[in-house]
């Protein structure tokens, strides 16, 4: 099975991930070569479903596209691929790895939140979304890399750290679509309103809300770093090693989460990932 996997290449998926999901692309370089195309397939699939809410204006159209992907996953699991780069790559993922189709369906379903117009009611709901997106991607990646379910607890901690960090980093982009990813109960506690925040108000109360989410992300990062990770499965979790650097940048005085991006130079990201890979730690 692995020998056959080594012959597979999906350049379309690889290029998609290289352009749109740089952290995971760089982390995948540390995976065994024969399994790397399957990670690219997973990450390309994740990108495709994540961008559905951005590419349509009507929730019904978004649901139609999600249903198309559900059917695509089902077909791929049966050995049949639709005429789409990612669909063809998924067929090979299911044929040559232990990745379960149901987990891909779960990734699709949780993304319905993106175009629902509903905000997260609580921090627990925000964390559940982070686990259901970034955490689920890590659980699937671990299975692709042969770890089975042994690292599911790590996937939850690392996924919540990476997912919360990602939501904070995406705030300018998501706010432009009137999507606000701060818990309603936290905003109410701090006297913040959705309309006020989207209009540019916030001040010290916004800083407090931002710091509360950052604190939770750092707590999950600390929990993830306590795990021992097999070298062969490390690539699934390496993107989380960048979280501390992103979060510290957001803690700088005067940082505006709605107007400032939060990036790390590629050379620095590569050095961070290399150092963590050498230690087999995130």
Describe this protein with a few key phrases:
single chain, 65% helix, 282 residues, 2 domains, mainly alpha, Farnesyl Diphosphate Synthase, 0% strand, globular
Structural overview:
The chain contains 16 helices and no strands. By secondary structure, it is mainly alpha-helical. The chain folds into two domains: 1-118, no CATH class; 119-282, Farnesyl Diphosphate Synthase, CATH 1.10.600.10. The longest helix is centred in the C-terminal third of the chain and has 23 residues, at 203-225. The protein starts with a helix and ends with a helix. Residues 1-6 have low confidence and may be disordered.
Reconstruct the topology from this structure.
Blueprint: H1 2-6, H2 11-20, H3 22-28, H4 36-50, H5 52-55, H6 59-77, H7 85-96, H8 101-110, H9 123-144, H10 152-169, H11 171-175, H12 184-190, H13 194-198, H14 203-225, H15 243-250, H16 266-279
Helix pairs in contact: 2-3, 2-4, 4-7, 4-9, 6-7, 6-8, 8-9, 9-10, 10-14, 14-15
């Amino acid at each position: 099975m692995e020998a056959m996997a080594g012959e597979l290449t999906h350049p379309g998926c690889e290029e998609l991930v290289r352009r749109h999901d740089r952290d995971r692309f760089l982390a995948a370089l540390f995976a065994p070569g024969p399994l790397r195309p399957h990670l690219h397939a997973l990450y390309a699939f994740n990108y495709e479903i994540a961008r559905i809410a951005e590419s349509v204006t009507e929730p019904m159209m978004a649901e139609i596209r999600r249903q198309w992907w559900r059917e695509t996953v089902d077909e791929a699991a049966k050995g049949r691929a639709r005429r789409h780069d990612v669909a063809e790559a998924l067929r090979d993922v299911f044929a040559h790895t232990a990745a379960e189709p149901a987990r891909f369906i779960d990734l699709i379903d949780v993304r319905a939140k993106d175009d629902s117009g509903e905000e997260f009611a609580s921090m627990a709901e925000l964390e559940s979304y982070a686990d259901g997106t970034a955490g689920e991607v890590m659980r699937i990646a671990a299975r692709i890399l042969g770890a089975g379910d042994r690292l599911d607890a790590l996937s939850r901690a690392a996924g919540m750290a990476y997912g919360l960090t990602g939501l904070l980093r995406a705030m300018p982009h998501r706010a432009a679509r009137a999507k606000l990813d701060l818990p309603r109960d936290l905003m109410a506690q701090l006297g913040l309103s959705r309309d006020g925040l989207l209009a540019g108000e916030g001040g010290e109360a916004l800083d407090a809300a931002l710091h509360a989410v950052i604190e939770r992300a750092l707590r999950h990062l600390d929990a993830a770093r306590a795990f021992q990770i097999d070298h062969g499965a490390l690539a699934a979790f390496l993107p989380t090693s960048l979280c501390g650097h992103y979060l510290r940048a957001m803690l700088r005085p005067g940082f505006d989460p709605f107007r400032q991006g939060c990036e790390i130079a590629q050379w620095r990201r590569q050095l961070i990932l290399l150092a963590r890979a050498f230690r087999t730690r995130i």
